[in-house]
Structure formats: C-alpha cells, structure tokens
Amino acid sequence: MLEVVDLHARVEGKEVLKGVNLSLREGDIVVLTGPNGSGKSTLARAIAGDERVEITKGDVLLDGESILGLTPEERFKKGVFLTFQAPPEFEGIPVGSFLLRISGKGEREALEELKELVEKLGLPKNVLFRELHRGLSGGEKKRLELLQALFLKPRFVILDEIDSGVDIESIEKIVELVKELARDGSGILYITHNPRSLELLGRYRVLRMEEGRIIG
Ligand SMILES: Nc1ncnc2c1ncn2[C@@H]1O[C@H](COP(=O)(O)OP(=O)(O)OP(=O)(O)O)[C@@H](O)[C@H]1O
Ligand SMILES: [Mg+2]
To answer: Is residue 104, in this structure, part of any structural domain at all?
Structure first.
C-alpha cells in the first residue's frame, strides 16, 4: 500500500502541493487528471523522491512506513517507480544493459522478454543497444518508458502522461498494457489529460487535482 497523507510541498519556494491525500493498492489503477500546473507532476516527483520538491508537511508511506527519508534509488529498490526518471549513474549505458542490471534477472530470459516487449510496443529493433532515450521520437520515448515499467513490474508505478505524444491508434494498446501490468500486481497512478485514456479507464477511480489539492 502506498499512501500520501496531507502532503504539502514547495518547488523553487512556491507552494505547489497544499494537502494531498491519496492511497494506492497493489493491482489497482488510480487515474489522476486536472489542469496544467495543478501539481500532478510535482506529486509524482514528491513520491519518487525528487530532491527539488521540498516537502513542508505530511508524509508518503509505503506499507505504513515513511519513505521521505529515502533517496530516489532507495525508493526504486523498494518498488516505487516513476517512468520518466532514470537514475543518473546509469546514463551513457545502453538501455538493455541498464535494465538487465537493475532488474537482477538472468541475462537470457531477460533478453528474450525485452525483445518481446520491444516488438509489442512497436519500438525500433536496435533500441536496447542505444543509450536511454537517445535518437528516439517523442512517442517512442513514451513507449520506452512503458517498456521499463512492463519489464521491471515494480510494486508501484507512476505513469506521468505516458499517453502524451503517442499516436491515437496506439492509446488503446498502451492502456491495455497498463491494465495487464495492474493484473500482474502493480499499483498504478495514471496521470493523464487524454480523453481516450479517460474513457478507457473510466471504470477505475478517477481523481482530479486542482491548485495543489485532490478534489475528488
Ligand atoms: N522547477 C520548477 N520551478 C518553478 N516552478 C515549478 C517547477 N516545477 C513546477 N513548477 C510549478 O509548480 C506548479 C505545478 O507544476 P506541475 O508540473 O506539478 O503541474 P502539472 O499538474 O503536472 O501540469 P501539466 O498538466 O501541465 O503537466 C506549476 O505552477 C509550475 O509552474
Ligand atoms: Mg505534469
């Protein structure tokens, strides 16, 4: 269980989160939407441990224990994964090796699995041998973020606009893969503005953020 309790946070001295409460169970999908600048990405970064987000009040709990004192890497090791964030020390390493290293999976089975995911997500065949995100189109970068989540199957995944910049034909497939990830047990916070995603995920809990608060 991942819980955000009365979270207040500042970015560059400005109060952005003004008392956010949220809970996410493994296997659940929670959809988060709301206007530009309302604080959705800041919430994602606060949960993942981005040190540029200064927590002034409240807590983030994993299985009832605060994770605010942990670095982003430590939070990742405990199973909290934010898709657009890659630990800096792995920069410059090909995506395939990077994922192999952090997954702890055996090389052969992992490579098979990665190749399957590359095909499923319609990514260029050589993507595993390139540096993370280098030379990819906007939509491909998003697909590669999703690939990481699908491969690592973290306990909790925050997908910050995983559907933005992705062609309309592929939204359904992305949502299907996200649902599959939830069925495999990951708890998912799906941040989106996309009407098609909202429609496809309508039967899940849909929350709206406004001016630093979740209003329902
Ligand atoms: N690095 C920063 N420096 C200064 N202000 C920031 C910074 N990052 C975010 N903010 C401010 O914090 C507020 C919330 O931004 P945030 O990115 O969380 O919004 P969002 O809900 O994700 O919006 P969007 O839907 O556009 O992605 C905005 O007013 C933004 O200008
Ligand atoms: Mg955002």
So the answer is: no
The pLDDT tens digits along the chain (216 residues) read 999 999 999 999 999 999 999 999 999 999 999 999 999 999 999 999 999 999 999 999 999 999 999 999 899 999 999 876 433 334 677 888 888 888 888 889 999 999 999 999 999 989 888 877 777 888 888 888 899 999 999 999 999 999 988 888 889 999 999 999 999 999 999 999 999 999 999 899 999 999 999 997
CA–CA gap between residue 84 and residue 162 (Å, rounded):
9
- Is residue 105 in some structural domain? no
Q: What is the domain extent for residue 28?
A: 2-84+138-214
Judge whether 129 lies within some domain.
no
Establish whether residue 31 lines the binding site of ligand 1, counting it when its CB lies within 6 angstroms of any ligand atom: no
- pTM to 2 decimal places: 0.93
Using alpha carbons, select from 132, 129, 158 the residue that is nearest to residue 144: 132
Distance (angstroms) between ligand 2 centre and the Cα of 105 equals 32
Residue nearest to atom 24 of ligand 1 (CA): 36
Is 75 part of a structural domain of the chain? yes
Is the distance from the beta carbon of residue 2 to the nearest atom of ligand 1 less than 6 Å?
A: no
The pair of structure tokens assigned to 134 is 């280098």
| Rounded alpha-carbon distances, angstroms, from residue 11 to 51, 133, 200 | 10, 26, 33
Count of domains in the chain?
1
Tell which atom from ligand 1 comes closest to the C-alpha of 14: 5
Q: What is the CATH number of the domain that holds 195?
A: 3.40.50.300
